[in-house]
Each structure stands twice: as structure tokens, then as C-alpha cells.
From TrEMBL:
InterPro entries: Homeodomain-like_sf, HTH-type_TetR-like_transc_reg, HTH_TetR, Tet_transcr_reg_TetR-rel_C_sf
Residue ranges constituting the HTH tetR-type domain according to the UniProt record: 10-69
DNA-binding region(s), chain positions: 32-51
Record key words, sorted: DNA-binding, Transcription, Transcription regulation
The UniProt record lists the keyword DNA-binding: yes
Name of the protein in its database record: TetR family transcriptional regulator
Protein origin, superkingdom: Bacteria
A GO MF label: transcription cis-regulatory region binding
Entries under PROSITE patterns matching the protein: HTH_TETR_2 (PS50977)
Gene3D superfamilies: Tetracycline Repressor, domain 2
Pfam families associated with the record: TetR_N
Length: 188
């Protein structure tokens, strides 16, 4: 019986970030680098080769969160979908990258490049909200930034629902809360 070869270096980095995100996303967790190494199944020396400090790990986690969500938003083709469908795709993209965002929220860490974050995430979301207001899908009696602020708050709430409901139900819940509100559905 032979031991399988270790995963390539970039896969180890991804594994470490994914496990760090999952661990740091747990409520009340004050995980240190030793805990993160253990969760990732690597030694401390390996962890420190990839991320020489907790700050470096959190910076990489923030970059990965922005890249992951930005890639998902680009792949979703938001500009080519009806607004309701695009909102649903945004919700799904957000909750499936959720552990990284929850971990960052719990640690208070922010992405190092807010301009890149805005370009990859903020710009497409603002465009979607403006389009929804223009076509009547979203209410037009308030500023687009206010609508986006409420949408962002619901997305954040969706992250806390994901462990209990799973990504699909959490995304659907956020979508309907944003688009239809909390009032009961009217029967046709």
C-alpha cells in the first residue's frame, strides 16, 4: 500500500483557507494558528510556510472571498437576466461563499484592496439595483444606495441562516425577503 502524494502547493493553500474559514466562522471561536493547522490537517510549519502570520492568513482569506464571489457574480451573467433571476443568483453566490465572509466578520478583518472589492462586487450589485428600479422590479421611492444597503443586510443575514437551512434554502429565503418582503403572499 502506497501513500498518496501530497496535494500540489496551491491546493494546500486553498485547503488551509477553506478550513480556516470554516473554523473562524463558528460563533465564539477564537481559533489560533495551531487550531487552523490542525483543522486543515497540516503541520504548523506548513501553515507558516504558506501564511507566515495570522494577518497574512486573514489577508489571503479576504482576497479569496472577494475573488470567489467576484468570479461567481461574473459567471452568473447578471446583466443578461431578468432582475428577479439575477437577484436570486446573487443570493446563491453570496451564501455559497459565506464561510469566508462570516470568518472575516467574526475577526473584524477587511479586504486589503477596497477598490478591487468594489469593482468586483459593489459595481455589479449597484448596476443590478439601478436596473431593477428602472424596470419597476424594485421600488423607486428610495435612493439605490439605500436599497443596496438593505439587500446587503439581508445577504449578511442569509449567511447566518446557511448552516441551519443549507445554501439553497438560505438563498431562496433572502431572495423572497428582498423581493417580496415579509408580508404574506397574496393568492391569485
Amino acid at each position: 500500500m502506497t501513500t498518496p502524494p501530497p496535494p500540489p502547493r496551491d491546493q494546500v493553500a486553498v485547503l488551509i483557507l477553506d478550513r480556516a474559514a470554516a473554523l473562524l466562522a463558528e460563533p465564539g471561536t477564537a481559533a489560533g494558528m495551531t487550531d487552523i493547522a490542525r483543522a486543515a490537517g497540516v503541520g504548523r510549519a506548513t501553515l507558516y510556510r504558506y501564511y507566515p502570520s495570522r494577518q497574512a492568513l486573514l489577508d489571503a482569506l479576504a482576497d479569496a472571498a472577494v475573488d470567489d464571489l467576484g468570479d461567481r457574480l461574473e459567471a452568473a451573467g447578471l446583466a443578461h437576466l431578468p432582475v428577479r433571476d439575477a437577484i436570486a443568483r446573487v443570493c446563491h453566490a453570496f451564501v455559497t461563499t459565506g464561510a469566508k465572509y462570516i470568518a472575516l466578520r467574526h475577526t473584524g478583518h477587511k479586504p486589503a484592496d477596497p477598490t478591487a472589492t468594489d469593482r468586483r462586487i459593489g459595481t455589479p450589485l449597484r448596476a443590478l439595483v439601478r436596473r431593477g428600479i428602472t424596470d419597476g422590479t424594485l421600488r423607486g421611492d428610495q435612493e439605490p444606495d439605500i436599497t443596496l444597503t438593505f439587500f446587503a443586510a439581508l445577504l449578511e443575514a442569509g449567511l447566518t441562516l446557511t448552516p441551519h437551512l443549507g445554501p439553497a434554502r438560505a438563498a431562496a429565503t433572502v431572495t423572497t425577503q428582498f423581493l417580496d418582503g415579509a408580508s404574506p403572499r397574496r393568492r391569485s
